[in-house]
Amino acid sequence: MGKTVVIALVVIVAIGAFFVFRGENKASSNATSSVQGQVVKNKKPQIPNNWFPKISAFEVNKNANDVSLSAKSAIIVNYDTGEVIFAKNAKERLPVASTVKIMTALVALENAELNDVFVVSEMLAKTAWVL
């Protein structure tokens, strides 16, 4: 059990670090990009995505039969345009347990240092892994 907890924490921290450090590059307020050491202005302004993909009636299950996927649902969206590239049961309501775990790790990483110690009650330690 101890090894499983350590491995799970390492995986959560690694995934969280990936998302935290990946986001720093996109958070730049300067709309320039570096090409071979020269700073060049972007031709089109960066428009933030509204977080809602633009689902056309014709693109809901685009190429869904061509992909072998074991997930109950999935969606791939072009971040810049909001166009749905692939969707499988995109409108089906499913539990969000894994997403909640990832978000918990991200919030912990944003609000604490990697060497901080967290105290977990014995009751929580016994019940937290039973989902």
Please state the CA-atom Rg, rounded to the nearest Å.
Answer: 20 Å
Quaternary state of this entry equals: single chain
Uncertain runs: 24-37
* Portion in beta strands: 5-15%
Shape: extended
Tell me roughly what share of residues is in helical segments.
25-40%
Number of helices: 3
| Alpha-beta content class | alpha+beta
Q: How many beta-strand segments?
A: 4
Strand order of the largest sheet: 1-2
Mean pLDDT: 69
**H-E string:** HEEEEHH
Give a short account of the largest sheet.
Answer: 2 strands, antiparallel
How many discrete domains? 2
Distance between the termini: 15 Å
In brief, what are we looking at here?
With 131 residues, this protein is α+β, with helices and mostly antiparallel strands. Helix content is 35%, strand content 13%.
Structural description of this entry:
By secondary structure, the chain is α+β, with helices and mostly antiparallel strands. The chain has two domains: 1-23 and 98-131, no CATH class; 55-94, no CATH class. The protein has helices at 2-26, 97-111, 122-127, and strands at 32-35, 38-41, 74-77, 84-88. A two-stranded antiparallel sheet has the order 1-2. Strand 1 and strand 2 (38-41) form a beta hairpin. The model is unreliable at 24-37 (pLDDT under 50).
Tell me the layout of helices and strands.
Elements: H1 2-26, E1 32-35, E2 38-41, E3 74-77, E4 84-88, H2 97-111, H3 122-127
Antiparallel strand pairs: 1-2, 3-4
Helix pairs in contact: 1-2
Q: What attributes characterize this protein structure?
A:
single chain, 131 residues, alpha+beta, 2 domains, two-stranded antiparallel sheet, two-stranded antiparallel ribbon, 35% helix, 13% strand, extended
